[in-house]
Amino acid sequence: MQTWLIQALVLLAVAIFLYAAWRYQKDKTERGPSFGGFTGHLSEVTRDLTAAARANKIDPVTGRENELDRIVHILMRRTKNNPLLLGEAGVGKTAVVEGLALRIARDSVPQALKNKSVLALDINALVSETKYRGDLEQRLQKITRELEERAKEVILFIDEIHLISQMGGAEGSLNVSDVLKPSLARGDVQMIGATTWREFDKYIKPDEAFARRLQPVLIDEPTPARALEILRSLRSVYENFHGVKITDDALKAAVQEADEKIDYRYLPDSAIDLIDEASAKVAIEGEYKHHVALGAVHAAAKIGKEKVTRKDIRAVIDQWVLHGSEDKARDARHK
């Protein structure tokens, strides 16, 4: 009898444990994944850049000290404390916001910002599963309420902010930007936006009530000298990723070639992409070069890293220019 009772108690304990584990997993799924301690609807549609900075998952940001100082000044204002970064695609608007997250992670900001988290909104996640009229507005209202509850903890970053001015508004429903306006006006939600001048003029400027809540910050294309400084700060990141050695001459060539030959893109993004692709090319060629017939890597491959030189940069830029010429020829044929 005692043996039977012990077995029953053991089975009951196992059942309770399994049920508790199931409930925990179910509740966790319903809450959504946590990023940097945030849960609920907010965690489902944002990425915590400050947590990423503390985990060393954000690349170094340099050459944007003046712009970062201006953003901090605006964030510290009593009213209209929502910076709007304006600049062409590729000039580094998102990198500037990541630079702010790095400053916060290092406590290199005023006291009022030290406990803030910069949350980057994923617009694709925001609009997913919003099939019916009003679904998107309701979802954003829930997120806005969460932001208001954590007003002293969160700065919301919306890249391509003009997109929210294009969402909703069908058949009498609220425009998505209309959901944010009251919270921005009261100062219950603090936000950083980013867009291009063209999109600003087309979508945000006509909405005067929304535009008034934002303080423009111009993010210009960096000069070649500053772009070179940015590339030097990122050199170790790409060297470690690709397992190569990037020469200073290659960095200079990347800036020069991108500035002179890639007129449809902007520094520093174009030069960074050149370095990235040239490094990948050199790493692959080095692997093939040191590969012997038996499939083993030669010992020489382990002694020193392959070098990325000006020649490699030019080889990549030649491919880019050729591809651009083919695109133009194809477009001309279809006109």
From TrEMBL:
Organism: Candidatus Uhrbacteria bacterium RIFCSPHIGHO2_02_FULL_53_13
AAA+ ATPase domain location: 79-220
The keyword Manganese appears for this protein: no
PANTHER family associated with the record: ATP-DEPENDENT CLP PROTEASE, HEAT SHOCK PROTEIN 104
Cellular compartments per GO CC: cytoplasm
Swiss-Prot/TrEMBL keywords: ATP-binding, Nucleotide-binding, Repeat
SMART domains recorded: AAA
GO molecular function, one term: ATP binding
A Pfam family reported for this protein in Swiss-Prot or TrEMBL: AAA_lid_9
CDD domains: AAA
SUPFAM superfamilies referenced in this protein's UniProt entry, alphabetically: P-loop containing nucleoside triphosphate hydrolases
GO biological process: cellular response to heat
Record's protein name: AAA+ ATPase domain-containing protein
